[in-house]
Every structure is written in structure tokens, then in C-alpha cells.
Amino acid sequence: MEKENSGQRGKNKLKINKCKECGSYTLKEVCPNCGGEVRGSHPPKFSPEDRYGKYRRRLKKEVMELGE
Questions:
Q1: Over the stretch 7-44, which tens digit does the pLDDT of each residue have?
Q2: Within a 10 A sphere around the Cβ of 50, how many other Cβ atoms?
Q3: What biological function has been recorded for the protein in this entry (predicted)?
């Protein structure tokens, strides 16, 4: 027998999010602790053909220099 939801694989996956404000993890779209904005907690997939990698690295370096 087949499962009822076999055609819906991946559609209802829960994705863990991280709050930008307090840093807590949640499965919700808004942080339950502080009400802040959340974003995905996983980094993007690595690709050796990354066209924008040099721009991201330059931005990260600039941000790190400002924080010192």
C-alpha cells in the first residue's frame, strides 16, 4: 500500500529559523521570544562556480573591519 502523502514529499518540511534580534532558534515565521524577524539558519549551498563569492567576501571583510 502507498502512503497517502507520498506525492507531497518536501512540501511540508519544517525549516528551522534563527532570530536576527535575539539569536534564538524557532520553527515559526516570527520570533516567539522577542517578536523579531527570523531568517533561515542554514548557509547557502557551496558551488565552485560561485559568481558572487568575491563580492560576499569583500563585504564580510569590510564589515569585520568596521567592527574592530
A1: 455 556 778 899 988 989 999 999 998 988 998 888 77
A2: 13
A3: Involved in ribosome biogenesis; more specifically in 18S rRNA pseudouridylation and in cleavage of pre-rRNA.
What nine digits make up the cell of 56?
Answer: 560576499
Q: Which three cell numbers stand for residue 30?
A: 516570527
pTM: 0.48
**Residue ranges in the chain assigned as alpha helix (H):** 53-67
Domain boundaries, the chain: 15-41
Geometric angle at alpha carbon 46, from 17 and 18, rounded to 5°: 10
Amino acid (1-letter code) at residue 55: Y
The sheet that has 25-26: what strands, in order across it? 25-26, 17-19, 38-40
